[in-house]
């Protein structure tokens, strides 16, 4: 069962599409990510509570919805898989987050131009395909990442990450996953 971990929508169940195409971020990983953002000296509560969030490769939208539940002002979701998009729309509606969300049916590697840059960016692509560096470059070029924004990227544990223009501020390993926290230059 997939659910929101904390905040105003705590315990709300989320829908996930059947099959292996979408791999939602595990609850314990989401909890650890938001605990770090909340308490780390390089982040803090305001980083989440005042955030304009981009949840790219959003799948079910669990990361962006978790941020909204914890006080983020707005979340934009980018997803291209049809089954994941259907689940994402259902999850945004279930959380009554329609007025604070925008869903883009598209590719995070070829994003449309941003209307407004985001201050908290969540990237949870399929592992092992070098998507994070490519997405960082594409999203930066399209104006999605604000200067000084925090980026939370989940990768496979053994994946290398080259991120020119970003400074790594922390890293944690969780099972097969490695979560890297970056600050945009």
Automatic annotation (TrEMBL):
Keywords: Methyltransferase, Transferase
InterPro entries given in the database record: RNA_MeTrfase_RsmD, SAM-dependent_MTases_sf
Positions of region (Disordered): 1-25
Pfam family, one: Cons_hypoth95
Keyword flag Plastid: no
Entry keyword annotation includes Transferase: yes
Record-linked NCBIfam families: 16S rRNA (guanine(966)-N(2))-methyltransferase RsmD (TIGR00095)
Entry protein name: 16S rRNA (Guanine966-N2)-methyltransferase
GO terms, biological process: rRNA methylation
Molecular function GO labels: methyltransferase activity
């Amino acid at each position: 069962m997939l659910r929101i971990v904390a905040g105003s929508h705590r315990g709300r169940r989320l829908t996930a599409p059947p099959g292996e195409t979408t791999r939602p971020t595990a609850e314990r990983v989401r909890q650890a990510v938001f605990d770090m953002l909340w308490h780390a000296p390089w982040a803090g509560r305001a980083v989440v509570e005042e955030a304009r969030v981009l949840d790219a490769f959003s799948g079910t939208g669990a990361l962006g919805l978790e941020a909204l539940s914890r006080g983020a002002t707005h979340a934009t979701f980018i997803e291209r898989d049809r089954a994941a998009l259907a689940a994402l729309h259902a999850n945004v509606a279930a959380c009554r987050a329609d007025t604070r969300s925008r869903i883009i049916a598209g590719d995070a590697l070829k994003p449309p131009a941003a209307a407004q840059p985001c201050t908290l960016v969540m990237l949870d692509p399929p592992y092992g395909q070098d998507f994070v560096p490519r997405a960082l470059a594409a999203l930066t070029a399209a104006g999605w990442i604000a200067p000084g924004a925090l980026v939370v990227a989940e990768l496979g544990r053994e994946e290398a990450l080259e991120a020119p223009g970003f400074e790594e501020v922390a890293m944690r390993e969780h099972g097969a996953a490695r979560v890297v926290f970056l600050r945009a230059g």
